[in-house]
Every structure is written in structure tokens, then in C-alpha cells.
Amino acid sequence: MSHHTLDATRTGLLIVDLQNDFLDPRGAYGRAGQSAPAIAALPQKILPLAQALRAKGGWVVSTQFTLVPAKGGEPIISPHLKQLRPFLGKGDFCPGGWGHQLVDVLQPADLTVEKVAYSAFYMTRMEWVLRKAGIETLLVCGIVTNGGVASTVRDAHVRDFDVRVLEDGCAAFSAETHRTAIDALRPVAPVLSLAEALQDVEQA
Prior knowledge:
It is built from nine helices and six strands. It has helices at residues 20-23, 28-31, 37-40, 42-55, 79-84, 126-133, 145-158, 175-185, 194-202; strands at residues 11-16, 59-65, 111-115, 137-143, 162-171, 191-192.
């Protein structure tokens, strides 16, 4: 049972990269056969918490992994990512495109921040919009636990946000990778279940 108090109006549910290009079978990863049941299940699992937080005056914040189009629309892709995901190409994760958007189940987000690397704070306006919105507590969920989630949680921590990790609200491409990443985050931030976070919100 969680005993973490929070002020809902100063709390953001930070949804990391739950975008069509990652999750939908028609998206970039789906077309390439890169999917995992745990990842696909996340939006419906997270939805009750998002709805409860909205009802309490809290914020839903979506990060959107972005491949910035350059000349001719060809995306700028970091070498390490190109090596890891060679199937990524023109039109994938393109700003304004369908694949770039937060999945329908969780829309609309109150704040949306494009990101170009693992961390949602790296060279983005994330910290600026959170401070302007008065958000002090972040409930972090999304994908992947060992990548975008872990990097974002660590960066939020060093910026003195009250950050909490939603263990079953995150997923990776393997259960073992997810567990290892969660264990590595335990010294950094409290790790809660979605049910515990929902209880905290309802009691706020």
C-alpha cells in the first residue's frame, strides 16, 4: 500500500512515448514486427489513472519521440538508433504525423513535449513547461523502461522534481529488461504500482 501524499493539481502523469508509431500495428515498429504484448497493453492499464488525475485537476503530460525531418523529408537519426532500428525511415515519428501522436486511448494530453533522445529533458522544453504549469510531482509511465523511462526519471530527479515510477505502467521489449531497469531505479525514486498511484490520487 502506498502512503505517498500528493497535491493532484501539482501532479503530472508523465507518459513516455506511447505513440502510434511504437504501438499500433500500422506504425513504424508494428510494420517491422517490433512489438511486445506488455507494451501493447499499457494504454488501457494507464487510462484509469489518467482519468482520475484529470478529475482531480492534475495534468497528463505526453512525450513524443521525434525524428526531425531534414532535406527532402529524410529523418535525422542518431547513429546508435539507426544501427539498432535500421527499419526507421522517411515519415516515421514525423512531427504532426499520425505515427507521432499519442495513442487515441490516452488522448488528449494537457501538455505535449517533443523529444529527440532517451530523456524527455534533453534539449527540450520539458522543464520549462512543467515549472510554468506548477507541476512538482511526476508519476512516470510508458516505454521503454530501460530507455526513455529510466533516463527521464533520472533527469527529473536531479532537477528536484518529486518523481515516482509506476512499475506496471512501464514496459520494455522483454520482462527481464523491464525488471532490471526497475530495480536500478529504486535508489532514485519510489516505485509504485498503478493501483497504489490511483489510491494516492483518489485520496489527494
